[in-house]
Specification:
Two copies of one chain form a homodimer.
Chain A (H helix, E strand, L loop, with lengths): L8 H24 L8 H11 L6 H9 L11 H22 L3 E2 L2 E2 L1 H4 L2 H19 L8 H27 L9 H26 L4 H28 L2 H4 L5 H4 L5 H9 L3 H12 L8 H10 L2 H18 L6 H15 L4
Antiparallel strand pairs in A: 1-2
Helix pairs in contact in A: 1-3, 1-4, 1-16, 2-6, 3-4, 3-8, 3-16, 4-6, 4-7, 4-8, 7-8, 8-9, 9-15, 12-15, 15-16
Chain lengths: 343, 343
């Protein structure tokens, strides 16, 4: 999927450097983040293991980039960025327990390497440290708004995960697992955390209410497009770039954008039957993937996915058109990073 | 265990009424607390089930009582009291998953009634709602201190639970599961949440730093005494009052105050051997309880427990001697409630 090219190569390189700097600053902050040395080791060893695990840092990078809309003091936003990255990792630790996932980013998950109790508790204490980091803004005039945005993000992401659990467990019929429910789920589970990341950056940089509102729309649409694309890459990406088995979502029985679209569009009885089987069976085998791809092919699901993701990316871009060139460049570069990714 | 009698009956009745009012106000606030009606039900049904489950509300009662040290406006402290009660319940939900406990307060635990994923996620979203409630103090001059006290409480209680897990899993020897480790564990797991409850009440009522410091000492000692007494009641309480099977802790292999004291005091080889067996076996059978009680009897563990708990209760009472009579009466009444309880 290719989308929005920045105008000149030099211009792109400067932005590239800026975003590398953002990532470097975030990684440095995380690397210098010190956990208590007196233990309990049961808690702080897995927490440290997570901090050492790396990651793309997309959310805190967005927080830093969002400061360009306001006073541009991105260094001030670093603490909140780390808090957001910890919140994101907390959701992964607990989600992996719920999904019984053994591997994350090529490493054992906490509950696999230790046990479930350690996984639950490590996630819990991470929330505490995230809120501690937000204490850095106690003298900021937007302190209570920053906190409220963060807490809203926490609640929304829990709601998203709950919708995901419900969605996964429900037997398919067009009434209860349609595209509407899919969009509600990914909005809460994925997009709201990006929205929060952008909003907090804006609040720290003293943005106006209108700017915050535009940042919100920007990140929300970006997040929805991002997730639709994520589902797309599971099936149409290149395995070495995506870093996981192609069709993994289908084997796990996930209600991806492609599945809900196919359920909506299918008319042939044999297609409908196979999609129903997919839902009631909660997934298919690797051998059955080619047949599912055939169904998708006949229903033009690949094109529907690309068009829909691009529609969200366009809405995202539209929402920031009144920003300064500097801010627009940074946010569009971020959008491009996500929209053009093959990983 | 009997401790500190208030001077006159009338005086006691007035305080009794005041504390009943506190409890009533807390229950009313919890009953009118509204969760989103749009779902996800996976999240809000178990949360509502918890809100409906009642409880002694000791922690928010302490928060309300602590306001008497300052401006006495206890109604202002209600939101924080509910936040603290939600935090306390969040720890119970997650602890019950870790301990695989099927029953709590005579009702099925969340993970038993639903499943583990629901238990993890319900606990998580509860933290979000607790922080939302603290947003009520965003215009309070002590807002950042209130939040910081709350977050510190969250971290400490996770650390306490982690020490408990480590403590339970370790094989006994005097070096690593002694009374010192026991005290560190219960301080974090039990006492720090009481400390936080008192401190937040004090902060909301605009107490001075000295008053906050005294409230801290009061609640911390009270919490330690409370836990030692809790361990005591498991073995020496009356079953119908305690509401659980006598000796349950011993069957579960908990390292109670009595166990760590006995390990410290035992000299006879057969006693030492049985205590080692208790630790390595992670508990004993109901039939073995009388023999453990014999050991305790010979080592005067019952008296040691009472004396130690009373020492902490006295330290608690001592720490508030400079408070006004009104505040002293309320906090001493609370102390008496806990110290004289048989439940």
């Amino acid at each position: 999927m290719s989308f929005i090219e920045t105008d000149t190569l030099t211009h792109k390189m400067i932005l590239q450097q800026k975003f590398e700097l953002y990532k470097q600053k975030i990684d440095d902050s995380i690397n210098t983040f010190r956990l208590p040395i007196g233990g309990p080791n049961t808690l702080y060893e897995p927490f440290q293991y997570l901090l050492d695990g790396g990651g793309k840092r997309l959310r805190p990078i967005l927080t830093l980039a969002a400061t360009s809309v306001g006073d541009g003091n991105y260094e001030e936003a670093l603490s909140s960025g780390i808090a957001i990255e910890i919140l994101h990792n907390f959701t992964l630790v607990h989600d992996d327990i719920m999904d019984k996932a053994p591997i994350r980013r090529g490493r054992e998950t906490i509950h696999s390497k230790w046990n479930e109790a350690v996984g639950v508790l490590t996630g819990d204490v991470m929330m505490g440290y995230a809120y501690k980091l937000l204490g850095a803004y106690s003298n900021h005039k937007n302190f209570s708004l920053i906190l409220d945005a963060f807490t809203t993000g926490l609640i929304e992401v829990c709601e998203g995960q709950a919708f995901d659990l419900e969605f996964h467990d429900s037997i398919s019929n067009n009434n209860n697992v349609g595209k509407k429910e899919y969009l509600k789920m990914i909005e809460k589970k994925t997009a709201k955390l990006l929205e929060m990341s952008a909003v907090i950056g804006g609040l720290i940089a003293n943005c106006t209410n209108e700017q915050i509102s535009s940042l919100r729309t920007f990140a929300l649409n970006l997040g929805i497009g991002f997730q639709i694309q994520d589902d797309y890459l599971d099936l149409y990406g290149e395995q070495e770039k995506v870093g996981k088995k192609i069709g993994k979502d289908l084997i796990e029985g996930k209600k991806t954008f492609q599945i809900v679209s196919a359920i909506e569009l299918a008319t042939k009885p044999e297609h409908k039957k196979f999609l129903e089987y997919y839902c009631s069976n909660k997934g298919i085998t690797e051998q059955e993937i080619p047949y599912m791809k055939e169904i998708f092919e006949e229903l033009s699901i690949e094109e529907v996915s690309i068009t829909t993701a691009e529609r969200y990316f366009t809405a995202s871009q539209e929402s920031i058109k009144l920003f300064s060139d500097k801010a627009k460049n940074e946010l569009e570069f971020f959008l491009t990073l996500l929209a053009n990714r093959a990983f």
